[in-house]
Design brief:
Strand order of the largest sheet of chain A: 14-18-19-17-16-15
Number of helices of chain B: 3
CATH superfamily of chain B: CheA-289, Domain 4
Structural class of chain B: mainly beta
Number of domains of chain A: 5
Distance between the termini of chain A: 63 Å
Distance between the termini of chain B: 41 Å
CATH topology of the largest domain in chain A: Heat Shock Protein 90
CATH topology of chain B: OB fold (Dihydrolipoamide Acetyltransferase, E2P)
Number of strands of chain A: 22
CATH superfamily of the largest domain in chain A: Histidine kinase-like ATPase, C-terminal domain
Helix content of chain B: 10-25%
Helix content of chain A: 40-55%
Radius of gyration of chain B: 15 Å
Largest sheet of chain B: 6 strands, mixed
Order of helices and strands of chain B: EEEEEHEEEEEEHH
CATH architecture of chain B: Beta Barrel
Strand content of chain B: over 45%
Oligomer: heterodimer
């Protein structure tokens, strides 16, 4: 069987399910009382088990199965969610992750799961003090038992009753068959299908509970009820059904078609199908909950089905080709406006519109939410804080912020390092925190947000903060800087020393962080990506690591402006608005020109000064300044230019390796007339 | 002049700066362009006069006269931009003119005289005397290495 083509899908989906497991386990730990979460966890585990078994990864299926048992106990409130239970389950998930990693690396996914399984079994037994048999029985009981008590008594609607009555009259036997699948069953839907097939050979299926759709989706425990009319004897029917393997028990009873007398009582609720359905849903609470959850997630499933995988290289080629096209488009636009031929300009306009749409699609193809990276952090923080005996709460905001795929792929490890750093060196032990008048539980905030052409990722802890003196001492000891250097440095720069190679502030080297090789690697990784990282800290109050990353939107919208003879592009994402102010509205505050802009005093940045534009006549004839108001985070400033040319889509090109770190210039672009215009990095202009 | 570069020969492009003739290995030369419009880049070394659009690639342009400390002159019809490529970096060098390709026997490359008008020694690979002409052979690696430039330029 050619499994290879399914393997990738399997790996992808497994990872997704593992992530869901992790997420929900974390949620469960926070709210142990919320049993609905368990349902979701159970569902993920179950799907994983099914997939693993189908693909022949026995260990994976085996372990998941045991995990499922424990989860089942939790769900049935027979096992309390304790820290120990969570630890064991988390460990199993770790094992599962390892297996999936092994499989994705071409391994066979085998792994010694004895220990994990033993622990899981101990949980099952420990709490219940019973052997697996009773446990299995309990599970069986959990679902079908209520049926015996009558609460899941099959309700037949009028039509079904008529059919049943008539069939009885015609000499057929209406049976209600209750089938309980073996608990070890991997592919329940397949078994159900086989049972249906067997029954259809000898009779007609009138009804099934849960409905056939749910059965197909494995939306049931192990038991289901089928109502069938058949001419064969009860025993014969039972024999046939039992031929299907992995069936634990079959209970067949003849339906009492004389239920007329019951009718008045149930009449009202059967009058319309809706209440009946609601009624049914109520009876099978665990099931219906699962269904609710399912409704929340099907989007995910559909997306998966509609996805095709494309090599990122191909997307790069596509992007490059498109960039060429955009340059030519610019040229065409220019030509058409010069020629002033209405047919030509109509065509060019149309082409521009289409390529604009195309551009958006191509760019979006490469964007992914940072959640891809963030989602593994809660688990990491949990195990790390346990290991270190600290209490840490990780708050994530802005996980939906999107970044180019290539960047997403790279930032994982350095971010892990920064977070570890915050927990290891930042957040203090609970008793230290309490002594300092802080809550015992430390908080690490992980934030991502867009600002201008950049995405910022910030890691802030409310821990001990960074001791500047210690850094200075260390830096001096390690010969990173000299005393003279220190004198001239700002606080930020001193904190920045931590990113120098050969630097570690941890007094003791732990295996979590503090090998002294980390932070400089972190910095260089971000810098290779065209980003930067800064630290700010208040001793005793906490630290803030701020990472700035480019969006790498290689095609960007800019406002072209003119300064003297030169043209510059200001990324539209950084622009708040443009304005023209009279020179009389400009004030001077400590030699800094400012204006009152909508109630805020904002500084003016004269581009001709900053860029030393040659032959620029400052006191030009005009009475007004043209301003481009730009923002960086919540800070804004006004860039003074000579004139605003207009908005253009341009291809952002790098200045190359030769010209690195040109102040306030993030790149260049080729305009429609073939000229090169520089693109401003307005973030550098705002302090 | 040999048709092919024989063993022990280097093929060079000869260009002028002021009255002197310089040579650079042809392998490094991507193309020779006429002078074209260059966009100034603010806040960089004076000899980097800006960037140009070289068939869709943003290419930095260096004025070799300024780089070597020779007094500037306005660009004219003869002015050329030598586009060199090294490790995927394309860089244009503005020279007064470039019009000769020659084969030079390695054996004829002599060490640079101790002092050559203003140019830091490390950029020079040697000098070649051929008939009545003297060429200064440039060291391409060193010229493209910006750190080196900065150090010596400081």
């Amino acid at each position: 069987m050619s499994q290879s083509e399914y393997l990738e899908v399997f790996i992808d989906e497994s990872q997704e399910h593992l992530q869901t497991l992790n997420d929900n386990l974390m949620k469960l730990e926070k709210e142990p009382a919320d049993i609905s979460i368990v349902g979701e966890i159970f569902r993920s585990a179950h799907t994983l088990k099914g997939m693993g078994a189908t693909m022949g990864f026995e260990d994976l299926a085996h372990l998941t199965h045991n995990m499922e048992n424990v989860l089942d106990l939790i769900r049935n409130e027979q096992l309390e969610v304790t820290s120990h239970v969570m630890d064991v389950v988390f460990e199993s998930v770790d094992d599962l992750e390892e297996m999936v990693v092994d499989i994705s690396n071409g391994g066979d996914g085998s792994r010694d799961v004895q220990e994990a399984v033993k622990k899981l079994e101990a949980l099952q037994h420990g709490e219940k003090a019973a052997d697996p048999q009773t446990e299995a029985a309990a599970a069986v009981e959990a679902a079908p038992a209520p049926e015996n008590t009558g609460s899941v008594q099959e309700d037949y609607d009028e039509y079904e009753r008529t059919v049943l009555t008539q069939s009885k009259e015609q000499g057929y036997y209406p049976y209600k068959i209750e089938i309980v699948l073996d608990e070890q069953t991997m592919l329940k839907a397949a078994r159900v299908y086989m049972v249906f097939e067997v029954l259809e050979q000898v009779g007609d299926i009138i009804k099934s509970t849960p409905p056939a759709d749910d059965l197909e989706d494995e939306n049931f425990e192990f038991a289901f009820v089928i109502t069938v009319i058949s001419s064969v004897e009860k025993e014969e029917l039972e024999k046939r059904v039992m031929k299907v393997s992995e069936i634990a028990s079959v209970t067949i009873e003849e339906v009492d078609v004389t239920f007329q007398e019951k009718r008045p009582a149930s009449k009202t609720e059967e009058a319309s199908p809706a209440p009946a359905a609601a009624d049914q849903a109520k009876k099978k609470e665990p099931k219906s909950k699962k269904q609710d959850k399912k409704e929340e997630t099907p989007k995910k499933g559909n997306e998966l089905n509609k996805t095709i995988r494309v090599n990122i290289d191909r997307l790069d080629v596509l992007m490059n080709l498109f960039e060429e096209l955009v340059i030519d488009r610019g040229r065409l636009e220019q030509i058409s406006s010069d020629l002033d031929n209405s047919e030509l300009s109509e065509t060019v306009e149309r082409m521009s519109r289409i390529s604009g749409d195309l551009q958006e699609i191509i760019l979006n193809m490469r964007m992914m939410p940072v959640d891809q990276v963030f989602n593994r952090f809660p688990r990491m923080v949990r195990s790390l804080s346990k290991e270190l005996g600290k209490q840490v709460n990780l708050e994530i905001t802005g996980a939906e912020t999107e970044l180019d795929r290539t960047i997403i792929d790279e930032i994982g490890d350095p971010l892990v390092h920064l977070i570890r750093n915050s927990i290891d060196h930042g957040v203090e032990e609970p008793h230290v925190r309490e002594a300092a008048g802080k809550p015992a539980q430390g908080t690490v905030q992980l934030r991502a947000y867009h600002s201008g052409n950049h995405v910022f990722i910030e890691i802030e802890d409310d821990g001990a903060g960074i001791d500047q003196d210690k850094i200075i001492k260390k830096a001096l000891d390690n010969g990173v800087v000299t005393e003279d250097d220190i004198e001239k440095m700002s606080d930020q720069q001193i904190f920045g020393l931590m990113f120098s190679s050969g630097f570690s502030t941890a007094e003791e080297i732990t295996d979590i962080s503090g090998r002294g090789v980390g932070l400089d690697v972190v910095r260089s990784t971000f810098e290779t990506l065209g980003g930067s990282v800064t630290v700010d800290s208040e001793f005793g109050q906490g630290s803030l690591f701020s990472v700035q990353l480019p969006l790498t939107l290689s095609i960007i919208d800019v406002m072209l402006v003119e300064v003297g003879e030169e043209k510059y592009g200001v990324p539209l994402t950084a622009i708040v608005e443009t304005a023209i102010v009279s020179k009389e509205e400009v004030y001077s505050a400590h030699n800094q020109k400012v204006i009152d802009f909508r109630g805020n005093v904002i500084p003016l940045v004269f581009l001709n000064d900053i860029f030393q534009v040659p032959d620029h006549e400052r006191e030009a004839e005009t009475e007004y300044y043209s301003l481009v108001i730009v923002s960086k985070g919540d800070k804004i400033a006004g860039l003074v230019v000579d004139s605003l040319i207009g908005q253009h889509d341009v291809v952002l090109k790098s200045l190359g390796n030769y010209l690195t770190n040109v102040f306030a210039i993030s790149g260049a672009t080729i305009l429609g007339d073939g000229q090169v215009a520089l693109i401003l990095d307005s973030n550098a202009l705002i302090k | 002049m040999a048709v092919e570069t024989a063993e022990g020969y280097v093929k060079v492009i000869v260009f002028q700066l002021k009255e002197e003739e310089y040579a650079i290995e042809v392998d490094h030369v991507q193309s020779i362009e006429r002078m074209q419009s260059v966009t100034r880049i603010p806040g960089v070394e004076a000899y980097i006069i800006g960037v140009m659009n070289l068939r869709g690639v943003i290419t930095p342009v260096i004025d070799l006269r300024k780089r070597f400390g020779i007094e500037s002159q306005s660009y004219d019809e003869a002015t050329r931009i030598l586009v060199l490529k090294k490790d995927n970096n394309e860089i244009g060098f503005i020279v007064d003119g470039a019009n000769d390709v020659m084969d030079i026997a390695e054996s004829r490359i002599e060490p640079t005289p101790e002092v050559v008008g203003g140019v830091a020694e490390e950029y020079l690979r040697g000098v070649v005397k051929l008939d009545d002409r003297l060429f200064t052979l440039l060291h391409i690696d060193k010229i493209l290495n910006k750190n080196e430039e900065k150090r010596s330029g400081a």
